[in-house]
Amino acid sequence: MTDMQAAIGLGQMNKLHSFIQQRRSNFDYLSHGLSELNDFLKVHTPTVRSKPSWFGFPITLREDAPFLRSDIIDFLESKKIATRLLFGGNLIKQPAYADLPFRIVDDIPNSDRIMTDTFWIGLYPGISGDMLEYVVDSFWEFIKH
């Protein structure tokens, strides 16, 4: 880290508590707004006794969802709602591991599902209430069509 980056980082530390609170609030808003779409989407929740500072809002398609992850991502992106794929999943299927020796003990279907059916939306602390409502409304619009 350069001195300039460190100075900026130190300046941001004064805002850390409010950033964390806003990210949690954004997560709660989306969780509530998308909870009735549970037939199509799995909205993730924190593990017991945890209180995360959410970086993003992860969403996994239900196995019997009548659409593909690419369908909903394309729709959201067309509405100017940025999405990202989860940067994990079944790592042994990543190109970097193509020529490396490894072993697995059993099938890892959950890792495969994460790789094919999960994406996330950022929870930037500067997202306004109107923006969050637009995101929720856009999910509902996609599901209705």
Describe the structure.
Helices cover 45% and strands 11% of the residues. Helix 2 runs parallel beside helix 5 (129-144). The longest helix is centred in the first third of the chain and has 19 residues, at 16-34. The mean pLDDT is 91. The chain is globular, with a radius of gyration of 18 Å. It contains 5 helices and 4 strands. A 4-stranded antiparallel β-sheet has the order 1-2-4-3. It has one domain: Aspartate Aminotransferase, domain 1 (Alpha-Beta Complex), CATH 3.90.1150. The chain is α+β, with helices and mostly antiparallel strands and 145 residues long.
Key features?
single chain, 145 residues, alpha+beta, 4-stranded antiparallel β-sheet
CATH third-level topology? Aspartate Aminotransferase, domain 1
Q: Give the terminus-to-terminus CA distance.
A: 48 Å
Give the number of domains. 1
Globally, the shape reads globular
Low-confidence stretches: none
Contiguous helical run count:
5
Can you describe this structure in just a few lines?
The protein is of the alpha+beta class. It contains five helices and four strands. Helix content is 45%, strand content 11%.
Mind sketching the topology for me?
Layout: H1 3-13, H2 16-34, E1 41-43, E2 56-61, H3 69-78, E3 84-85, H4 109-117, E4 118-122, H5 129-144
Antiparallel strand pairs: 1-2, 2-4, 3-4
